[in-house]
């Protein structure tokens, strides 16, 4: 797999659980930013409509070791435990992706 | 809705149809880049695993008029028609999103 590489994760909270999920993701993101130099992107995106908004994580890892560090981190494990609090309507969908066309920005 | 705003679209091709979907999205993206100054981001991302990879479009629009121009464009309408060629395993999921945490880049 070419490096760096992207991961896009799709998270679907149960109705009424979105704020709790947002809080957990933002807490994790702060720890990732502070502790994981190889996690080049870790952005929390929230759907702006509906009472069960979908979250989309846009992530980029410098290399496999950086992804391994992320997966093994205390904070990510805590996130995994917290998600078991009956917060999600479906299992988190984790997609390893690559940009194959279009453009990232016109600015 | 604050402007500019993001759209994340999740597209799930039927097995064996991913290359056709990629070709369509990349053709549309070229036209968008050439003809739509208000479409600030239009990036085609393809899952790198599996024979029915998911596509995730990351899009940003300067304002409502720019989104309207995109939706009304000849190219987007052609994409819509082409998608009716029995290419998708599920309807395209279109999410209006906002970044609420984390970071876009450490580079």
From TrEMBL, chains A, B:
Domain ABM: 5-96
Gene3D superfamilies cross-referenced by the UniProt entry: 3.30.70.100
N-terminal signal peptide: none
Cited PANTHER family: BIOSYNTHESIS MONOOXYGENASE, PUTATIVE (AFU_ORTHOLOGUE AFUA_1G12025)-RELATED
Stated name of the protein: ABM domain-containing protein
Organism in which the protein naturally occurs: Trematosphaeria pertusa
């Amino acid at each position: 797999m070419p490096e760096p590489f992207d991961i896009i994760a799709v998270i679907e909270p149960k109705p009424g659980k979105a704020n709790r999920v947002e809080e957990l993701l933002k807490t994790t993101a702060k720890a990732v930013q502070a502790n994981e130099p190889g996690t080049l992107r870790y952005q929390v995106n929230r759907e702006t409509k509906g009472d069960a908004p979908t979250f989309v994580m846009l992530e980029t890892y410098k290399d496999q070791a950086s992804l391994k560090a992320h997966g093994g981190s205390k904070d990510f494990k805590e996130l995994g435990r917290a998600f078991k609090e009956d917060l999600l309507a479906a299992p988190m969908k984790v997609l390893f992706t690559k940009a194959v066309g279009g453009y990232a920005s016109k600015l």
